[in-house]
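Researcher: I'd like a candidate sequence for this fold, 147 residues long. If you have to choose between options at a position, lean toward the conservative one.
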């Protein structure tokens, strides 16, 4: 059990993850909130347009994960774990919305539409590799585990 805790809270002892945490956390927190504020535009309406079954439930489910995991990234708690559902969400977004654009309109249209998804994916991978960094709750917990 101690080994698992060590892995979950282990983080690089530097500041390289502060900006990625802030960027990814704020984007996903904002997107999750907007799914509730503007359901027809980015929530259930969008999920229905894409073709998902039960779009109301799914939009709320995804929004909750975006809000919770985005907040965890912002405060730097269980950063590696919080990045996993967000990586699944962004991968699903790419497959369901960007691949059809590639098929219908070509590479450059898809590249333009996918720029934020691409950036979020790479920043999430960064966070999974390096963790939350020195200015995170993970760093404080990790330090207490090794002392």
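Model: Candidate sequence:
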């Amino acid at each position: 059990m101690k080994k698992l805790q060590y892995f979950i809270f282990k983080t690089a002892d530097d500041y390289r993850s502060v900006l990625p945490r802030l960027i990814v956390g704020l984007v996903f927190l904002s997107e999750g909130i907007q799914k509730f504020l503007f359901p027809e535009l980015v929530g259930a309406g969008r999920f229905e347009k894409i073709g998902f079954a039960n779009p109301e439930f799914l939009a709320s489910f995804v929004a909750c994960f975006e809000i919770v995991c985005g907040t965890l990234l912002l405060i730097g708690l269980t950063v590696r774990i919080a990045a996993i559902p967000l990586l699944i969400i962004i991968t699903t977004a790419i497959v369901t919305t960007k691949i059809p654009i590639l098929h219908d309109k070509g590479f450059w249209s898809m590249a333009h539409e996918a720029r934020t998804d691409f950036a979020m994916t790479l920043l999430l991978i960064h966070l999974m590799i390096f963790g939350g960094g020195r200015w995170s709750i993970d760093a404080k917990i990790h330090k207490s585990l090794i002392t």
